[in-house]
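REQUEST ID: PR-0412
SUBMITTED BY: lab tech R.K.
PRIORITY: routine
TASK: structure prediction, single protein chain
INPUT:
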Amino acid sequence: MTPGHGSTVDGVLRRSARRTPARAAVEYRDRTWTYEELDEAVSRAAGVLLAEGLAPGDRVGAYGHNSDAYLIAFLACARAGLVHVPVNQNLTGEDLAYIVRQSGSALVLADPDLAGRLPAGTRTLALRDAEDSLLARLPATAAHEGPEPRSEDLVQLLYTSGTTALPKGAMMTHRALVHEYLSAITALDLSAGDRPAHSLPLYHSAQLHVFLLPYLAVGATNIILDAPDGDRLFDLIEEGRVDSLFAPPTVWIGLANRPDFATRDLSGLRKAYYGASIMPVPVLERLRERLPELGFFNCFGQSEIGPLATVLAPDEHKGRLDSCGRTVLFVDARVVDENGEDVPDGTAGEIVYRSPQLCEGYWDKPEETAAAFRDGWFHSGDLAVRDAHGYFTIVDRVKDVINSGGVLVASRQVEDALYTHDAVAEAAVIGLPDERWIEAITAVVVPRGEVTEEELIAHARENLPHFKAPKRVLFVEELPRNASGKILKRELRDRFAS
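STATUS: complete
OUTPUT:
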C-alpha cells in the first residue's frame, strides 16, 4: 500500500486540527479542548498506551463513563494501531467478563469507580480521576510519531447489543468507519456551525460514530454530557449553546413526558435525531406538534454497518412517519425472502446490505460470520418493507415477529396502537408460549395514570384487527433496556414465560 492515504479514524481529527487549530473541539464539564490541543492529546495518549508494552493489533477494552478522556482514548488507540473494545459501563459479572475474555483484551482502560467490577487479574489503566491515569500522564509523555495504521486495519470490535443472543464483536476497520462518517455527514446535514450535545453513552456506536466523530470531521464544537439529563439539556438549549441533539425514542419519550416540556423555550433546537430503536408514531406526532419548526431525522442501522444505514430527512416525514428512510451514501440494500430472492415492493422480507461500511465479520466466530454474510450480502435480521420510491419501513426484528395461531403479527403495529392511549407511557409487545395460540400476543406496559388490562385490550381492538390485539396486558414500573435505549424483549420473554 502506498503510504499517506490518511483514510484512518484518527486522520479525521488530524485534518480538522490542521484546518481549524484554534476552534473549540470538545467541551466536557469545566474543560475545553481546541482542535490542536485535542490532536496533541491523542498523540500523547497513543504514546502512553504503547509505553505499556502494547503492540499494533492488540485489543484494548474501554470501560468508562462519558468523558473527554474516553474520546481521547478511542482516538489514541486508532493512532497507535490498537483495536478499541468499547464495553457497556452497566455490565457486571459474567456479561462483563465475557466481552473482556472473548475479545482477548490485553489492557482495559477503566474509570476508577468501575474497575473493581472487572474480572480478577484484568490488567487495567485508569482513564481519569487517578494520579497515574491516562489523562494525568499526558503532559509528561512524548507524542507518538510512529507509522500510521493502514485503512484496512481493524480499529474497533463493536459488540452487538445482545438483545437476542450473546454479543458478537463486529470487526470494524478504519476504512469502514471513515466511509460511515461521510455517509452520516451527507445524510444528516452535519456542519461546522452546528452546536451538538452528545449525551448518550460513547461506548455505543450511534453516539460515537454517527455524531461525535462526524462532527469532529466537519469542525463543530461538541459538548459531551455525562448522561441525557433533561434539566441540563433544556438549560443548554435555552442558553443557545445546543441546537442539535440525538436521542433514542426512550429518551425523547422521557423529555416529552416532562411537566416543563410545554413551558420551556426550546425554539433554539434546530435538528433532532432519533434512532437506535423504533420511534412510536404517536410519540413522534406529539413531538412535532409541540416543536413544529424542529427538523426531525430518523436514523436507522445496526452495529455491523457502522451503524448508519438509512435516514429519513425532515422534508421526507410527511406521510411516512413510520419509515426509516432511504439508504445513505455508501449503503446498498435489498429486501429478500428466506431464499435470498428479492420480494416485490410492498412485501415484507429481510433487509440485506452491501457496503464498504460493513464489518469484516465477527471476532473469533466463523460460523456466525458465515451465517450473516451470504451470497455477498449481510443479512441484518430486520424485517422490512420497501416502497416504489426506495423508502424502507422496518416492520420488526425477524426474531420478534409473533406467530399467533399460525398468523405472523409484527409487534411494532400493536405497540403503535397502544401508544395512542393517553395512559400508556411505554409499551413492548412480545409473544409468550400458549397451548392454543402457539404464541399469545402480550403487551408489557408502563402506565401513566389509571388504566386496566381490559381497557387497553378494548382500545387495541378498536385500532387493529381482533387477531392482532393483545391477549394479555402486564403492567410494570419500567422496561428493561440497554444503554442505547433498545428494549430487551428477550428479558421480558424470559421473565414472563412461566
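NOTES: The CA atoms of residues 87 and 296 lie 29 Å apart.
REVIEWED BY: pending
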